[in-house]
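User: Before I run my own analysis I want an independent prediction to cross-check against. Here's the chain; please return only the C-alpha coordinates and, at the end, one sentence I can use as a sanity check.
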Amino acid sequence: MYKFIADNVVAFDVEWVPEPASGRRIYRLPDTASDDEVLEVMWREGGATPEDPRPYLKTVMCRIVSIAAVVRKRVRSEVKLDLISLPGLHDGEQPEGKIIRKFLEAVGNLGAQLVGFNSSNADLPILFQRALANRVTAPTFCHRPEKPWEGADYFSRASDYNIDLKNELGGFGKAAPSLNELAAALGIPGKMGINGADVVELWRTGEFRSIVEYNQFDALSTYLVWLRSAYFSGRLTEDAFVHEEQLLEALLLREVEGGAEHLGRYLDTWKAFRR
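Assistant: C-alpha coordinates:
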Protein backbone atom coordinates (compact mmCIF):
# COMPACT_ATOMS: atom_id res chain seq x y z
CA MET A 1 0.00 0.00 0.00
CA TYR A 2 1.20 3.52 -0.77
CA LYS A 3 2.96 5.49 1.96
CA PHE A 4 1.34 8.92 1.61
CA ILE A 5 -1.28 11.01 -0.16
CA ALA A 6 0.18 13.83 -2.21
CA ASP A 7 -1.34 17.29 -2.24
CA ASN A 8 -2.50 16.62 -5.81
CA VAL A 9 -4.05 13.29 -6.83
CA VAL A 10 -5.30 12.41 -10.33
CA ALA A 11 -7.50 9.30 -10.55
CA PHE A 12 -7.75 8.65 -14.27
CA ASP A 13 -9.00 6.34 -17.00
CA VAL A 14 -8.17 6.18 -20.72
CA GLU A 15 -10.34 4.95 -23.60
CA TRP A 16 -8.90 3.79 -26.92
CA VAL A 17 -9.94 2.13 -30.17
CA PRO A 18 -8.10 0.21 -32.92
CA GLU A 19 -6.35 2.59 -35.32
CA PRO A 20 -6.73 1.64 -39.01
CA ALA A 21 -3.66 3.68 -40.04
CA SER A 22 -1.43 1.58 -37.78
CA GLY A 23 -3.13 -1.60 -38.99
CA ARG A 24 -2.36 -0.72 -42.60
CA ARG A 25 1.31 -0.25 -41.84
CA ILE A 26 1.70 -3.24 -39.54
CA TYR A 27 -0.02 -5.69 -41.90
CA ARG A 28 1.16 -4.03 -45.15
CA LEU A 29 -2.38 -3.43 -46.39
CA PRO A 30 -3.02 -1.28 -49.47
CA ASP A 31 -4.31 2.28 -49.15
CA THR A 32 -7.37 1.17 -51.10
CA ALA A 33 -8.49 -1.05 -48.20
CA SER A 34 -11.32 0.61 -46.28
CA ASP A 35 -11.06 1.24 -42.55
CA ASP A 36 -13.63 -1.49 -41.92
CA GLU A 37 -11.58 -3.97 -43.96
CA VAL A 38 -8.43 -3.03 -42.06
CA LEU A 39 -10.17 -3.45 -38.71
CA GLU A 40 -11.36 -6.91 -39.67
CA VAL A 41 -7.76 -7.89 -40.53
CA MET A 42 -6.52 -6.47 -37.22
CA TRP A 43 -9.08 -8.46 -35.23
CA ARG A 44 -8.43 -11.62 -37.22
CA GLU A 45 -4.67 -11.34 -36.72
CA GLY A 46 -5.33 -10.54 -33.06
CA GLY A 47 -6.93 -13.94 -32.55
CA ALA A 48 -10.62 -13.42 -33.34
CA THR A 49 -12.93 -16.39 -32.76
CA PRO A 50 -16.68 -16.85 -33.30
CA GLU A 51 -17.11 -16.36 -29.54
CA ASP A 52 -14.82 -13.31 -29.46
CA PRO A 53 -14.89 -11.64 -32.89
CA ARG A 54 -13.27 -8.42 -31.62
CA PRO A 55 -10.44 -9.47 -29.30
CA TYR A 56 -8.39 -7.08 -27.21
CA LEU A 57 -5.61 -5.71 -29.42
CA LYS A 58 -2.12 -4.65 -28.44
CA THR A 59 -2.20 -1.02 -27.40
CA VAL A 60 0.42 -0.09 -29.99
CA MET A 61 -2.24 -0.78 -32.65
CA CYS A 62 -4.75 1.60 -31.06
CA ARG A 63 -5.39 5.30 -30.67
CA ILE A 64 -6.59 7.22 -27.61
CA VAL A 65 -9.98 8.87 -27.98
CA SER A 66 -10.74 10.02 -24.42
CA ILE A 67 -9.11 10.61 -21.03
CA ALA A 68 -11.13 11.42 -17.90
CA ALA A 69 -9.94 12.09 -14.36
CA VAL A 70 -11.03 13.13 -10.91
CA VAL A 71 -8.51 15.73 -9.71
CA ARG A 72 -8.10 16.07 -5.96
CA LYS A 73 -6.22 19.15 -4.74
CA ARG A 74 -5.38 19.83 -1.11
CA VAL A 75 -4.48 23.38 -0.11
CA ARG A 76 -3.50 23.39 3.55
CA SER A 77 -6.42 21.52 5.17
CA GLU A 78 -8.98 22.13 2.41
CA VAL A 79 -9.67 19.53 -0.29
CA LYS A 80 -11.23 20.38 -3.64
CA LEU A 81 -12.41 17.97 -6.35
CA ASP A 82 -12.81 18.47 -10.09
CA LEU A 83 -13.88 16.18 -12.91
CA ILE A 84 -12.00 16.74 -16.17
CA SER A 85 -12.43 15.19 -19.59
CA LEU A 86 -10.33 15.37 -22.73
CA PRO A 87 -12.20 15.98 -24.96
CA GLY A 88 -15.11 17.60 -23.14
CA LEU A 89 -18.66 16.33 -23.34
CA HIS A 90 -19.56 18.71 -26.19
CA ASP A 91 -16.26 18.81 -28.07
CA GLY A 92 -16.64 15.83 -30.41
CA GLU A 93 -13.58 13.93 -31.61
CA GLN A 94 -10.29 15.74 -30.94
CA PRO A 95 -6.74 15.19 -32.28
CA GLU A 96 -5.13 12.38 -30.31
CA GLY A 97 -1.85 14.23 -29.80
CA LYS A 98 -3.66 17.22 -28.32
CA ILE A 99 -5.49 15.02 -25.80
CA ILE A 100 -2.29 13.27 -24.71
CA ARG A 101 -0.20 16.45 -24.49
CA LYS A 102 -2.76 18.30 -22.37
CA PHE A 103 -3.11 15.41 -19.94
CA LEU A 104 0.60 14.69 -19.51
CA GLU A 105 1.43 18.38 -19.17
CA ALA A 106 -1.27 18.88 -16.53
CA VAL A 107 -0.15 15.86 -14.48
CA GLY A 108 3.53 16.78 -14.78
CA ASN A 109 2.95 20.42 -13.83
CA LEU A 110 0.94 19.38 -10.76
CA GLY A 111 3.48 16.73 -9.74
CA ALA A 112 0.34 14.72 -9.01
CA GLN A 113 0.00 11.26 -7.55
CA LEU A 114 -1.38 9.29 -10.51
CA VAL A 115 -3.98 6.63 -9.68
CA GLY A 116 -5.42 4.12 -12.15
CA PHE A 117 -6.81 0.61 -12.40
CA ASN A 118 -4.58 -1.68 -14.48
CA SER A 119 -2.77 1.52 -15.42
CA SER A 120 0.71 -0.02 -15.24
CA ASN A 121 -0.14 -2.61 -17.88
CA ALA A 122 -2.57 -0.67 -20.08
CA ASP A 123 -3.29 3.04 -19.59
CA LEU A 124 0.28 4.24 -19.09
CA PRO A 125 1.83 2.11 -21.86
CA ILE A 126 -0.67 3.36 -24.43
CA LEU A 127 -0.14 6.95 -23.29
CA PHE A 128 3.60 6.56 -23.81
CA GLN A 129 3.29 4.69 -27.11
CA ARG A 130 0.79 7.11 -28.59
CA ALA A 131 2.74 10.12 -27.32
CA LEU A 132 5.68 8.85 -29.39
CA ALA A 133 3.42 8.17 -32.38
CA ASN A 134 2.10 11.75 -32.25
CA ARG A 135 5.50 13.35 -31.62
CA VAL A 136 4.36 14.69 -28.25
CA THR A 137 7.00 16.07 -25.91
CA ALA A 138 6.29 16.00 -22.16
CA PRO A 139 9.56 16.79 -20.33
CA THR A 140 7.93 17.72 -17.01
CA PHE A 141 5.96 14.46 -16.88
CA CYS A 142 9.02 12.45 -17.96
CA HIS A 143 11.44 14.03 -15.46
CA ARG A 144 12.86 11.40 -13.10
CA PRO A 145 14.28 12.57 -9.74
CA GLU A 146 17.64 11.34 -8.54
CA LYS A 147 16.10 10.12 -5.28
CA PRO A 148 12.54 8.79 -4.69
CA TRP A 149 11.70 11.49 -2.14
CA GLU A 150 12.67 14.33 -4.47
CA GLY A 151 9.49 14.29 -6.57
CA ALA A 152 7.14 12.40 -8.85
CA ASP A 153 8.38 9.45 -10.90
CA TYR A 154 5.79 8.03 -13.27
CA PHE A 155 8.10 5.43 -14.78
CA SER A 156 8.84 3.47 -11.62
CA ARG A 157 6.35 0.77 -10.69
CA ALA A 158 7.54 1.12 -7.08
CA SER A 159 6.88 4.86 -6.95
CA ASP A 160 4.10 6.15 -4.71
CA TYR A 161 3.37 8.67 -7.47
CA ASN A 162 2.29 5.82 -9.75
CA ILE A 163 -0.47 3.83 -8.04
CA ASP A 164 -2.13 0.96 -9.87
CA LEU A 165 -5.10 -0.14 -7.76
CA LYS A 166 -5.30 -3.45 -9.59
CA ASN A 167 -1.78 -4.28 -8.43
CA GLU A 168 -2.53 -3.10 -4.90
CA LEU A 169 -5.91 -4.80 -4.49
CA GLY A 170 -6.60 -7.09 -7.40
CA GLY A 171 -4.67 -10.30 -6.99
CA PHE A 172 -3.63 -12.40 -9.98
CA GLY A 173 -5.13 -14.74 -12.55
CA LYS A 174 -8.77 -15.75 -12.19
CA ALA A 175 -8.91 -14.13 -8.76
CA ALA A 176 -8.28 -10.66 -10.18
CA PRO A 177 -11.51 -8.64 -10.39
CA SER A 178 -12.31 -6.09 -13.06
CA LEU A 179 -12.86 -2.48 -11.97
CA ASN A 180 -16.59 -3.05 -12.41
CA GLU A 181 -16.58 -6.13 -10.18
CA LEU A 182 -14.43 -4.55 -7.48
CA ALA A 183 -16.43 -1.32 -7.47
CA ALA A 184 -19.78 -3.12 -7.27
CA ALA A 185 -18.55 -5.26 -4.37
CA LEU A 186 -17.61 -2.06 -2.54
CA GLY A 187 -20.99 -0.43 -3.15
CA ILE A 188 -19.62 1.83 -5.89
CA PRO A 189 -21.24 2.14 -9.33
CA GLY A 190 -19.32 0.34 -12.04
CA LYS A 191 -20.55 0.05 -15.61
CA MET A 192 -23.64 2.09 -16.45
CA GLY A 193 -25.07 0.40 -19.53
CA ILE A 194 -21.89 0.51 -21.65
CA ASN A 195 -18.76 -1.61 -21.39
CA GLY A 196 -15.33 -1.40 -22.95
CA ALA A 197 -16.27 -3.58 -25.90
CA ASP A 198 -18.89 -1.00 -26.94
CA VAL A 199 -16.43 1.88 -27.28
CA VAL A 200 -15.19 0.97 -30.76
CA GLU A 201 -18.75 0.89 -32.14
CA LEU A 202 -19.57 4.22 -30.49
CA TRP A 203 -16.44 5.64 -32.13
CA ARG A 204 -17.31 4.21 -35.54
CA THR A 205 -20.79 5.76 -35.39
CA GLY A 206 -19.56 9.13 -34.12
CA GLU A 207 -21.14 8.91 -30.65
CA PHE A 208 -18.23 10.65 -28.94
CA ARG A 209 -20.25 12.05 -26.05
CA SER A 210 -21.25 8.51 -25.03
CA ILE A 211 -17.55 7.54 -24.96
CA VAL A 212 -16.72 10.52 -22.73
CA GLU A 213 -19.62 9.71 -20.40
CA TYR A 214 -18.46 6.11 -20.09
CA ASN A 215 -14.90 7.32 -19.50
CA GLN A 216 -16.09 9.63 -16.72
CA PHE A 217 -17.93 6.77 -15.01
CA ASP A 218 -14.72 4.72 -14.87
CA ALA A 219 -12.68 7.67 -13.59
CA LEU A 220 -15.24 8.28 -10.82
CA SER A 221 -15.23 4.60 -9.84
CA THR A 222 -11.42 4.57 -9.82
CA TYR A 223 -11.41 7.59 -7.51
CA LEU A 224 -13.94 6.03 -5.13
CA VAL A 225 -11.98 2.77 -4.95
CA TRP A 226 -8.84 4.82 -4.21
CA LEU A 227 -10.73 6.77 -1.53
CA ARG A 228 -11.77 3.51 0.15
CA SER A 229 -8.15 2.31 0.03
CA ALA A 230 -6.95 5.58 1.58
CA TYR A 231 -9.38 5.07 4.46
CA PHE A 232 -8.41 1.40 4.83
CA SER A 233 -4.71 2.26 5.05
CA GLY A 234 -5.24 4.96 7.68
CA ARG A 235 -4.32 7.83 5.33
CA LEU A 236 -7.77 9.31 5.98
CA THR A 237 -9.71 9.42 9.23
CA GLU A 238 -13.35 8.34 9.19
CA ASP A 239 -14.49 11.98 9.32
CA ALA A 240 -12.19 12.90 6.42
CA PHE A 241 -13.37 9.90 4.41
CA VAL A 242 -17.05 10.80 4.87
CA HIS A 243 -16.29 14.44 4.06
CA GLU A 244 -14.64 13.48 0.78
CA GLU A 245 -17.61 11.34 -0.21
CA GLN A 246 -19.76 14.41 0.44
CA LEU A 247 -17.41 16.53 -1.68
CA LEU A 248 -17.85 14.10 -4.57
CA GLU A 249 -21.63 14.19 -4.19
CA ALA A 250 -21.51 17.97 -4.37
CA LEU A 251 -19.27 17.81 -7.45
CA LEU A 252 -21.68 15.45 -9.21
CA LEU A 253 -24.63 17.70 -8.40
CA ARG A 254 -22.79 20.71 -9.85
CA GLU A 255 -22.00 18.76 -12.99
CA VAL A 256 -25.62 17.67 -13.38
CA GLU A 257 -26.78 21.27 -13.00
CA GLY A 258 -24.28 22.17 -15.74
CA GLY A 259 -25.88 19.73 -18.18
CA ALA A 260 -24.12 16.42 -17.42
CA GLU A 261 -27.36 14.50 -16.89
CA HIS A 262 -25.63 11.11 -17.05
CA LEU A 263 -23.85 11.88 -13.78
CA GLY A 264 -27.24 12.06 -12.08
CA ARG A 265 -27.68 8.37 -12.90
CA TYR A 266 -24.27 7.65 -11.39
CA LEU A 267 -25.09 9.59 -8.24
CA ASP A 268 -28.49 7.91 -7.85
CA THR A 269 -26.94 4.44 -8.27
CA TRP A 270 -24.23 5.25 -5.75
CA LYS A 271 -26.80 6.46 -3.20
CA ALA A 272 -28.93 3.36 -3.76
CA PHE A 273 -25.94 1.07 -3.21
CA ARG A 274 -25.11 2.81 0.07
CA ARG A 275 -28.69 2.45 1.31
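Sanity check: The first helix runs from residue 20 to 26.
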